[in-house]
């Protein structure tokens, strides 16, 4: 499974060019970039196709490949993200 994350401080965002391509591929016009599921096949294609041109302001997008059977979530610190396996926590 491929997941798009931001690898710099600032936060996930797409460039105007990337968002336009996403709309064209997906047909989901008007969707905010922050609402797009990170494992969306169209989003992955946009980042693979545009590379650095897909980056929004203060973003450095990359694709992380994880096993298909993993229950995952995106963790972040100051906008820099990583993929983590979901686990249980008790306090």
Concise synopsis of the structure shown:
The protein has two helices and four strands, in the order E-H-H-E-E-E. The protein has helices at 16-26, 41-50, and strands at residues 2-6, 61-65, 72-77, 80-85.
Relative strand content = 15-25%
- The geometry reads as globular
SS-derived structural category? alpha+beta
How many discrete structural domains? Answer: 1
Give the helix tally.
Answer: 2
Spans of 5+ residues with little confidence (pLDDT < 50)? Answer: none
Q: In percent, how helical is the residue content?
A: 10-25%
Order the strands across the largest sheet as they lie in space.
1-2
The overall pLDDT average reads 96
Number of strands: 4
End-to-end distance:
31 Å
Structure explained in plain terms:
- The chain is of the alpha+beta class and 91 residues long.
- The protein has one domain.
- 23% of the residues lie in helices and 24% in strands.
- It is built from 2 helices and 4 strands.
- Strand 3 and strand 4 form a beta hairpin.
- Helix 1 packs across helix 2.
- The chain starts with a strand and ends in a 6-residue tail after the last strand.
- The mean pLDDT is 96.
């Amino acid at each position: 499974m491929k997941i798009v994350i931001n690898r710099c401080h600032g936060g996930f965002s797409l460039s105007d060019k990337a968002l336009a391509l996403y709309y064209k591929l997906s047909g989901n016009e008007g969707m905010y970039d922050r609402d797009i599921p990170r494992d969306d096949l169209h989003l992955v294609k946009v980042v693979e196709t545009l590379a650095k041109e897909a980056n929004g302001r203060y973003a450095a997008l990359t694709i992380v490949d994880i096993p298909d059977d993993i229950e995952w979530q995106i963790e972040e610190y100051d906008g820099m993200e990583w993929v983590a396996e979901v686990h249980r926590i008790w306090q």
